[in-house]
Specification:
There is one protein chain. The chain has 423 residues and is an alpha/beta fold. The protein has 13 helices and 16 strands. Strands 1, 2, 3, 4, 5, 14, 15 and 16 form an eight-stranded mixed β-sheet that branches. A five-stranded parallel β-sheet has the order 9-10-11-12-13, with helices on both faces. The protein is globular. The protein starts with a helix and ends in a 14-residue tail after the last strand. It binds zinc ion (ZN).
Length: 423
């Protein structure tokens, strides 16, 4: 099942340890005050000239008179740490630069995965949901224990891969879901269709409905890889979140909105990554043999833009932020904001909220992350620039705090140009 899961994901192309790391200047390490000139609360609200008070891992107050100030972030845009609802954190290139997939378990691959989590955190993403590899478990747990710096990880572990009748009977599928829960999965990942451009559903409505129903009974969310008819089927099955979605009709999108199902179409980073790293992906399992064959992917980008533009116009549709980050994309997740705003017709504030409070809601974690408010985790980032005026400010993350610990503090010294190959 692991192998076919990789295949399906790959075919997307065609289709308090850290005692006080950087905060030792604070007189009381357990209480930190951040001054902000412009503060986005993560729900679409903007505050000016205020201060955030943090104790331990949590925000305890928003108080313009709090003192003394430990971090002066005036002149920057301060907002909650971002959440990426769809990554493959363990996916990397091997020592020869070739695509190693998300399931590699060599010592080198394990260190590379840890590096991905570190790069993703420094890119401003304090939480990610990684979907499709059992290799995520030890990384999730090491970061959670404080043994490694990195984004907070939720994971599906091994996915349920649609393979027609071989997927199993509804009872067998329910047993698989329960097994995943026992293994410690935070959610269930389901591949219900093939790649971007062709192929019917890879599981029946009954199979898909059994998977999402059993997950619900077990208190788990479901995230479904779906194109074309699989989008409607996943909506009928009452799954939690639908990924990709090329081929969805306006009626399908309206159905998602009516049922409150989260929708996560990607606007560009994934394909840009495959195109940029074509020599690294070419000839590896399930990818084209030659670099020249990757050119066909360029024609899919406008289809992604069209879908995002259409989705952005559907009233009430909850479009959540997920990049599908694979090898080459880790740390550059914020490029997807640029794609969504520049090419997908999404308003800048809506794009940002989709990676803050809306993403937290989609992960069932609104009471813990995704907003800047008393009682929530102190996940706070700052950008050099105003993303409402210029969305490329998301590339200039100059401050990162996760759970009250500062991992990056480089005011006004951020990267100002996109990585090569990303527009
Ligand atoms: Zn994926």
């Amino acid at each position: 099942m692991k192998c076919s899961a990789m295949f399906l994901c790959a075919v997307i192309f065609c289709g308090c340890i850290a005692a006080q790391p950087a905060t030792s200047s604070s007189p009381d390490p357990r209480r930190i005050v951040i001054a902000a000139g412009t503060l986005f609360d993560g729900k679409g609200g903007v505050l000016h000239n205020t201060r955030i008070v943090i104790k331990g891992t949590k925000i305890v107050a928003i108080d313009p008179h709090a003192a003394p100030v430990d971090y002066n972030l005036r002149g920057l845009t301060v907002l909650p740490g971002w959440i990426d609802a769809h990554v493959h954190i363990t996916w990397s290139f091997d020592k020869d630069g070739k695509n190693a997939g998300p399931a590699a378990a060599t010592p080198e691959a394990v260190y590379r995965a840890a590096g991905n989590a570190w790069a993703t955190l420094l890119g401003g993403f304090t939480t990610v949901q990684s979907v499709g590899s059992a290799q995520d478990f030890p990384l999730r747990d090491a970061i959670s224990r404080g043994g490694l710096p990195g984004s907070r990880i939720l994971t599906s572990g091994e996915p349920l891969s649609g393979r027609g009748e071989q997927t199993g009977t509804p009872e067998e599928i329910r047993a698989f879901v329960r097994k995943q829960k026992q293994a410690g999965s935070d959610l269930i990942k389901i591949y219900a269709s093939g790649g971007m451009r062709q192929g019917p559903m890879t599981m029946s409505q009954d199979q898909l409905s059994a998977a999402c129903d059993e997950a619900r009974k077990q208190g788990l969310r479901t995230l479904v890889h779906a194109y074309r008819d699989a989008v409607r089927a996943a909506a009928i099955a009452g799954c939690t979140q639908i990924e990709h979605g090329l081929g969805a009709s306006d009626d399908d999108l309206k159905l998602l909105a009516e049922k409150g199902i989260y929708f996560d179409p990607q606007a560009g980073l994934l394909l840009e990554t495959y195109l940029r790293y074509r020599q690294n992906y070419a000839g590896t399992p399930f990818f084209p043999k030659t670099e020249a064959e990757f050119t066909s992917m360029e024609s899919i980008l406008p289809m992604n833009h069209e879908l995002m533009q259409r989705a952005a116009k559907v009233p009430g549709l909850k479009i959540v932020f997920g990049t599908d980050a694979v090898a080459g994309a880790h740390g550059h997740n914020a490029e997807e904001f640029v794609d969504r705003v520049r090419d997908g017709g999404v308003q800048p504030m809506a794009a940002l909220v989709s990676a803050n409070s809306l993403a937290a809601e989609a992960l069932g974690k609104s009471s813990q992350i995704g907003s800047i408010a008393p009682g929530l985790e102190a996940d706070i980032i700052a950008l050099d620039g105003d993303p409402l005026q210029d969305i490329t400010a998301v590339r200039r993350v100059v401050f990162v705090m996760k759970g009250g610990v500062v991992y990056k503090n480089e005011p006004r010294k951020g990267i100002t140009s996109p990585p090569p190959g990303l527009r």
